[in-house]
Amino acid sequence: MRETETTAEARRQMEICNACRYCEGYCAVFPAMAMRREFSTGDLTHLANLCHGCKGCYHACQYAPPHAFGVNIPQTFATLRAESYAEYAWPPAMGRLFERNGTVVVLVTFLALTAVLLLTMGLQDPAILYTAQTGTGAFFRVIPYWLMTGLATVTFGYALFAMAMGALRYWRGTAPGAGQRPITPAPVATAAFDILTLRNLGGGGHGCNDLDDSFAQKRRWLHHAMFYGFMLCFAATTTGAFYHHFLGWKSPHHFLSLPVQFGTWGGVLLCIGTAGLIWVKTVTDPVPVAKKLLGSEYAMLSLLFLVSITGLLLLVVRHTGAMGVMLAVHLGLVLAFFLLLPYSKMVHGVYRGLALLRNAQERGAETGAAPAKAPSGKATLKAASAS
Ligand code: SF4
Ligand code: SF4
Fold this sequence. Notes:
Layout: H1 5-20, H2 29-34, H3 41-50, H4 56-60, H5 73-88, H6 101-123, H7 138-142, H8 145-174, H9 185-197, H10 218-247, H11 258-283, H12 294-317, H13 323-340, H14 348-366, H15 377-386
Bound molecules: iron/sulfur cluster (2 copies).
One iron/sulfur cluster binds near residues 54 and 55.
InterPro entries: Citrate_utilization_prot_B (IPR012830), NarG-like_sf (IPR036197)
Keywords: Membrane, Transmembrane, Transmembrane helix
Organism: Roseococcus suduntuyensis
């Protein structure tokens, strides 16, 4: 990770926090910070990705703005996280897409929708888009099976490969050389537990400062709705593929079938999670927020909301003449989402997962070892006040 104005600012604030340590019980960041005496750009990137943006430390901080120290960890770490997504993106030239991500999301969505509609009309009789199709294989009479699965496989495969390459670059970049530890089952299990429960959005037990200085669990539950909704939609697709290839059962399936039930509940949870998170962003206290990233966050949440709502609408209109257009629109939105996945805020799931894994490794290694001694509090705070 390159040295930037943001890394210099994050280092200044971490040195103040390392002398203060008031927020030690809030999340994983402060104990991880306390293991370090100096902060390389790799350390700061790791700590920034470990931060879940709960804003607890900002609302508790006696040195937050308008204090001269100006400690605003959630805002600084959010900016640093965005810089790390661009730095480790694969291929590296695509990292520039993060800068104007809101515009890119709109453009790619428009192009993907147009491409799917044009392909459908070019390969089929255009009338099929507004003629009711029923019975086995109805969806594939509108968009051929080979085209639907081909487009989804290529775009999702590309997204997975690009994110895996980004993850590798991040893992090496945040702990170069001797800092790499072997990955063993115990830290993997700890990190998986932290990811699945979003433990670090608990604010040490009483919740986050979602909107202001009062504590709540809204953001944690909305994140859960989005994450588990996404996983249920993924389960719907894989069970549908299993039915098609191994049992010869072609969609559309009965409403009570596994793929439709997974997809329905997944879609509902995704709609609630994305709409709720958009609402939280519009009403939250703006000071501990990185404002220049808001456009891209709104754009990706809106795209995921549209993917889920069109999936649900497809279920509603699947036996009517509106099914063809709805299917093409839903597929176009899904393709846009896959293509943008490695270059959007959504990659935070990958980097945060790796940060939690590294944190679990460090916690395991620290057990029984003496904690690293922080620099003298008085000296650090004096230096910060002088700067
Ligand atoms: S109170 Fe402020 S300076 Fe102290 S650890 Fe928390 S965020 Fe850092
Ligand atoms: S914003 Fe929340 S998660 Fe991030 S460092 Fe502060 S207390 Fe920890």
